[in-house]
Amino acid sequence: MSILSFVAFTLLVAVIAWWSTRKTDENSSDGYFLGGRSLTGPVIAGSLLLTNLSTEQIVGMNGVSFRDGIPIMAYEVVAAIAMVFTAFVLLPKYLKSGIATIPQFLENRYGKSTKTIVSLLFLLGYAISMLPTVLYSGALAINTMFDIPEMIGMEPEPALWVTVWAIGIIGSIYAIFGGLKAVAVSDSINAVGLIIGGSLIPIFGLMKIGDGNVFQGLKTLTATLPEKFDIIGGPDSDVPFATLFTGMLIVNFYYWGTNQAIIQRALGAKNLKEGQKGLLLAAFIKILGPFIVVLPGIIAFYLFNGDLANADEAYPMVVKAVLPVAFIGFFAAVLFGAILSSFNSALNSSVTLFGLDFYKEYINHDASEKQVVKAGKTFGIVLALFSMAIAPLLYGVEGGIFTYLQELNGTHSVPILAIILVGIFSKRVSGKAANISIVFSVVTYLTTLYVIKPDISFLHLMGILFVLTVIIMYVVSSFVPRETDYNQEYTKQVDITPWQYLKPVGFAVVAAVVALYIYLS
């Protein structure tokens, strides 16, 4: 019954995605990479949330909350502030230029060499961290929920290889042959299912603890494990409170404002108004995120007495323990959709980056739109195979997959955010300064984190490095400035009239985040 409902829901989503995209011209760059610039606010919001809310988030963050408690929720709620900033400041700049990729914006601002370096950083980030962690965490969740190793008569680790490749092949077909609109439509359907299904897990978990009463379960949980609900977090916490003002801001502002896999949804908006609506709708829902991605980990700690060999198994173990059998197939299908969503999104963005920023630029300058899309698809297949080959190697990684992902992402998130913000707020900082600062940031971060290994949170390290990177840009530019002031041209590809309710809704989101922290502290 569980497997039947799993297959039925998965096929339903695929059919709806095909039906919705059958008239989109997938042979043009705008059609394939940006959904024909036709995405509306609700579709953008759903796609943003599901691209983000995948198994590396759900499995990984609940694994951290199993160990460390509620401070990890900072990744969720600070994201809402980052989305407000993107809606107010970054998206109007992007749409004014009519760009399809963040590196294209950087080319306009700094020059071709900066665009190439950043495109390469994005591609390496997707290949080494994002794609493999999505596949690994997804396979781990599916294997644990359905007892796949037992079903196919294999040990957990070899069984992981089978599931990783199955997910990777299906995801590749969606992303490479469907384009952005197919990804965004399937995301929106799965987002509704994931929010409903994801909310059921903590509800059923609290009912199990409270003998059928959710509020009694929450009361028992907070009384039994008060240390798990200390939002400030001690010095040994994965997220010490002070990091909210250093690396946590950088992680979120980079992720929601400059990460190609995420911002591509908003770049596909039919106009600025719809893009801003989508970002702020997603921001409001994001504030509720800890209920889905943090609380189940603490419930798992209570139910299993803190005794799990691999903390990343906390979430799928809770699902098995508390969800009625009739719901497991549906929820696994939604979770499968979330896995595909994040995998598809990173893969689609990689295809976009390679097709527009490498193939068209350096390999075949006279390529037709159709040739660019075809070359991008070929690259996507190679990248998918590479990520499927290394994903199972993450099994049992120290500190959990979520921390692994965030640490590695600092390599590119710090320099990319720095050069974009400086590029927007200054007119004279040069391309040479941007390039030098990127190399400095990448080399310094990797050397400090993996060779020197200082006794501070990697989030603080990101904060310090961000400030140094910005200083280096201004210092180098004082010696080698731009020849002329940078003035952004309006391409008129997209209407950039802002949403009339942008300010009140944006301020309400920020106030809600601050109120939540005050309440929980």
- CATH superfamily descriptor: Sodium/glucose cotransporter
Number of E-type strands: 0
Task: Please write the CATH class name.
Answer: Mainly Alpha
> Which architecture name does CATH use?
Up-down Bundle
* Average of pLDDT: 85
Low-pLDDT parts are: 29-35
Rg value: 22 Å
Class computed from helices, strands and strand pairing: mainly alpha
Number of helices: 22
Envelope shape: globular
Question: What order do the helices and strands follow?
Answer: HHHHHHHHHHHHHHHHHHHHHH
How many strands, what sense, and barrel or not for the largest sheet? none
**Strand percent estimate:** under 5%
Q: Short summary of the structure?
A:
The protein has 521 residues and is mainly alpha-helical.
Structural summary, described in words:
The chain has 521 residues and is an all-alpha fold. It has a single domain, classed as Sodium/glucose cotransporter (Up-down Bundle). Helices cover 76% and strands 0% of the residues. It contains 22 helices and no strands. About 1% of the residues have low confidence.
How is this fold's topology laid out?
Layout lengths: L1 H20 L7 H6 L6 H12 L2 H14 L5 H24 L4 H8 L2 H35 L1 H5 L3 H54 L4 H11 L22 H11 L2 H8 L4 H16 L1 H5 L1 H9 L10 H9 L2 H39 L5 H22 L10 H25 L5 H22 L5 H22 L22 H19 L1
Helix pairs in contact: 1-9, 1-17, 3-9, 3-12, 3-13, 3-17, 4-7, 4-15, 5-11, 5-13, 5-22, 6-7, 7-9, 7-16, 7-17, 7-18, 7-19, 7-20, 9-10, 9-15, 9-16, 9-17, 9-18, 11-19, 11-21, 12-17, 13-22, 15-16, 17-18, 19-20, 19-21, 20-21
